[in-house]
Each structure stands twice: as structure tokens, then as C-alpha cells.
Give the backbone structure.
Amino acid sequence: MPSLPDMNTPDVAELARGAAAASRATEVPTPDAGQEAFFEALLRIGDSTLILGHRVSEWCGHSPALEEDIALANVALDLIGQTQMWLGLAGEVEGKGRSADDLAYLRDAWDFRNLLIVERPNGDFGHTLMRQFLFDAYHLELLKALAGSSDPRVAEIAVKAAKEVAYHLERSSDLVIRLGDGTDESHRRMQAALEALWPYTGEMFLSDEKDAEAAAAGRIADPASLRPAWERTVRDVLGAATLTIPEGAFAHKGGKRGVHTEHLGYILADMQFLQRAYPGATW
Amino acid sequence: MYAQLVSTDGLKKPEEMTPEERAFQERIDRGEKIEPKEWMPEGYRKTLIRQIGQHAHSEIVGQLPEGNWITRAPTLERKAILLAKVQDEAGHGLYLYCAAETLGVSRDELMELLHKGKMKYSSIFNYPTLTWADMGAVGWLVDGAAIMNQVPLQRTSFGPYSRAMIRICKEESFHQRQGYAIMMKMASGTPAQKAMAQDALNRLWYPSLMMFGPSDKDSVHSAQSMAWKIKMNTNDELRQKFVDQTVPQAEYLGLTVPDPNLKWNEEKGGYDFSEPDWSEFFDVIAGNGPCNKDRLGARVKAWDDGAWFREGLVAHAEKAAARKAPVAAE
Amino acid sequence: MSKEWPLWEVFIRGQHGLNHRHVGSLHAPDAEMAILNARDVYTRRNEGVSIWVVKSVDITASSPSEKGPLFEPSNSKVYRHPTFYDIPEEVGHM
């Protein structure tokens, strides 16, 4: 992890107050309100990379070809590395002495803030690749926006992660195109994956008051602002893949405020087992 | 080792060899590398395909017992390290399959032989990984035993195999160390962690000794492989070396090797130790180890479930090439 | 058995500007995928800045039986090597 400057930049409180005043002029902001929204926003990023990294790592040893096994492990490794940075920064911002590991291993499901799409089961390999593509296209736009964050620590992580994610997107979009335009069976499977996952994409772009607060402070991008670029990428790639974008606009939501699918509990049961069974041990 | 029980016909004496075979043996004796397109005895080719294939299968089946724990690794850093290590094993399998392919067999053919039970992989991977300490013990003992064999194989006579081993040894250097680092944490941790570490050593000690294959006196087929330099040391030599290296490491951890007969023998300059239960070894090889069905089942499932994916990509590549062709002709 | 992905030979140029070097092989359905796979398989340890891939069947190799005529004649051309020439030490490094 790169060494990051101290969180107490002189203008933080000022920015937070200004931002809050701008969005809710009648309210008197408390000095740490901005920090809380910032912490929340960082969890939303770090929890998504954590859970997706976990899901992708489940393929290790089980992929359809050795080359894919190795490539997917690289994606998972990138996501785990990014998680260490995002959750590390979240712990720092929270200021209660929690490390990235504490946040990953010692919270229950309702405290997790990841998007629902990343906790969806892997399904077949095409389903995994489609989920990866839909997320990568969003992830890259998110990181490009975060590279301009008013907080230099966020910008630094985003710049590093964006290089990794640009490659993830290159690979996942390439495979989605190839499989969509492959055999009848691969086309059918990719279309089915797209239809199953589509209702989970809308959550990426929903903003709540916490997003608005962090965005107003210039720290975190407003999710809604990422949508047009994401839609362009998705339209181009799915078009080249000869896949049909589903019409429904319904979006499952809840992940960002801790209301998850049943799957997350099982992921955490696996992931947190040792930390829970042997409290206080070091590994 | 990763290629246990690869048998060849008996060793040929120089007077039984054809002139070609004699010239071939002389090249090997001079330390020359044999390259794929060069003449080689059919037995050399066949033995190498079996040995490299078995080695490659061991790498990819060997992903499974450790892969088990990737989702349960106790910290983010441990998760990343373990994932990187298991990924390396996929890479090592890949390099080795490519080396075997230079001998005129394809990777898919080798996979099929594995899936039909016609080719084997190392017995060690048919044992379960039951606790996190097993991640330490596997790295320390299993990779430790594998390295014993792989380091000399860098000098093996077949060029592509030798080059694959050089790359593998370079990458493997962190595997055993990360395993030992886990063991150190466990052995100096809470009483439960220390007990877990001892339990892992107890369960994996004898299966690790079995990795080197049966005793030389029962392993009549290795003479030809040694003459061809595709096997560099005898099973007993390597096993002795492994025990001599590992016992002090166990002592450093404060763990006890589960062998009441283990004793330093001043005269031979090595440890005396108990043989593993060879009937158990032959049971495991015959398919009756604790995890044989699960391991092979997982590999077959991965392969079968992935068929549509591999075919889909071929179909697309063909379509894309066909679309490109007329343009290129203009 | 379904159609296999062809085998590719991978060449990588490292950080220090040396020539592309053969590092190994892999399978891929076409050249573009072979490049991506090579990135994932053969540059995991920061080994490269440029990748070439060539289909294995497209490589033409010298024949092993011609090893003598092809390579031994250069053995006797000792005058091509700098150590062939004795230069007095006073002249300095050359």
C-alpha cells in the first residue's frame, strides 16, 4: 500500500460544511458528518471489490481452460489488492482504529455496502464473465472519475486501480463479444446471463443522500453521472456480441444500505470463519 | 514424486543397443540436451510423455486441496498469497503440458487420459486439507518435497522439460517459504493454533514421505530412467535428503515429527526414520485415497462444463477469420 | 473430442530493451486471445513490456541432422573473437 498523506487536510471540515450547506441550506451541519458519508462511500467501493474478488477466486482450479484459470486469478488478485487499499482508507477515515482486515472479517452482512450484482453466484463461466463485464464497465468509469477526487488519497488509489481495471474490461468485453458471437449454445448462455444480471445493473447508478454528500465534497463521484459512459460501452460491446439488451428498467437495490441477497451471508460464513472461530488470533 | 511409479522396460546394456540407441545414450552421457525433433528411442519418448504428463496433472489437481481454502483465508494478505500460489500451479501445469506436447501428444489428449483414469497424478493430492494449518504444512512439506525432485530435474536430458523445470523452480521459490511462514505464525500463536499446526504435521508427514515413491529395492524400473537422465536421483536418496532437511525445521517450530523411531545416525550422517505404510500408498494410487473421487470429479466437471466455452471461442475465431479473409485479399 | 485451441509460441521483450526472447507456449483460439493469455500467463512477475505470439505450426526450424554443417564451421573462426588478438597492456583498454 502506498504511503498516504494524513487525513486531516486543513480544508476537510471546510469542504464538508460547504458541501452540506450547498445541498441542504437549512440544516446546520455537524463537523464530522462529511466524514461519515465519506466512510460510507469508501465501504461501497471496497466492499464491492472485496466480494467480487471473493466470487472470482472461487473459479481457481475449476475454469474451462488453464489460460482462463490464470487470467481470472489475476483479476481476483487485483480486486483483493484494491480492497486492501479502499478498506484501509475507510478505516483511516473512520478513525476508530479498524484495519482493512477488521472491516472485511469482522462485520456482519448488514454492515456490508457492496452492490448486489457482485454477490450473485458465479453460475456458469459465461454468467461470471457477463457479471464481470457489466461491473468492469462501471468500475472503470468510477475510477476515472475518482482519479479527479478532491482527496489525494482517493485519487492515488483510483489511478493505480484504473490501470488494472482497464485490462479487466478489455478482457471481459473481448470474451463477451466472442461468446455472444460464437456457437448457438454460447450465444444462448450469454443472452441468458445478460437477462439474469441486467436487473442488478441499475443499482450502480442510484444515488442516495450519502452519495450526494460525498459527491458534493468532491471526494467521490456521483453514481448517476457514470451512467451515460457505461451505457455507451455496454451498448457497443453487447451489439458486437449480437446480444439483445433487455428492455426492463427494474433495478434490484439495497446493497448500498446493507440490505443484501441471501448469498452474502454464505460468502461471509466462508470468508470470516477463521477470524470468528479463533477471535484475536493472528495469522 | 509428482511422477510416481512411471515404469520403463528394463535397462538396456550397450551391447543390446542399436547403433542409433548407443549414439543417443552417448549424447546423454556427454550432457547434451535432446530436442523434440531429434531422433530418440520410442521408450524415451513414451516414458517422458507419461512422466511429464503425470507431473502436469499433479500440478492442476494440486490446485484443488489448496484452492479449497482461498475463500476461507484468514486475512486479505493471506488470501492474495494463497491465490497467487495456486495460480502458479496452474501455470506450472500449463508449462509442463506444453513440454509434453513437443513429444507429439496434445494437451486435450492428456487431459482426456487423466479424466478416464488412464494417467495418474501424485498420491499426495488425494489427502484432504482440513484446517488452515494445512496451508502451511502443504507449502512447507509438499512443496518442500517437490522442490527436492524438481531442482535436479532442471538438468534433465530433454530440453523442453528442462526449460519448463527451470521456470517452475524460479517461480516456486516462494511457495515453500510462504508455507513455512504460515507454520511459524501458527506454532507461535494461540494454543489452538499450535495444536492445529501439530495436527497438520501429524497427518501430512507420512503422505509427504510417500511422494518420493516406493523404496529403491522395490522400484526396479528406475534404472533406465536414470540412464536417460529423466530421473536424476533414486527415491530413497531424495527421501533421506528431505527428512534430513525437514526435521530441524520442525524442531525450530517446536513441533514433533510423528515418528518414534526418528533418530540421528552419526555414522551415516542422516536420520533414521520409519517407512510410511506402503499398503496405504498403493491403496491411494489404486483410487482409494480419501479424496480421489472428489479430486478427479472436480477436474472432469471443470472440463465438461467448460466445453461450450472452449467451442464458442473456436467458433468465433473461425467466423472472424472468415470475415477478415476477403478484405485481406483485396 | 472437440476442436482444440491451437498452440502459440510466446516471445517477450523485458524491461531492459533486449530482444524479444522465447519464454514458452500456450493455447488460444486466435492471435488476439493469445496476446491476452500471454500477458496473463507469462508476465505475472513483471517480466515484460512487449509481447509477440506466433502459431507454433508456423515456425520453421533448422533440421537437427544438419547441426554439424550448420554450426560447426564457425568453431574454427577464432579470429572473430576479441581474445584472439594480443594487445600490450600499455595500450590500455580496447
Q: What stands out?
A: Residues 31-42 of chain C form the longest helix (12 residues).
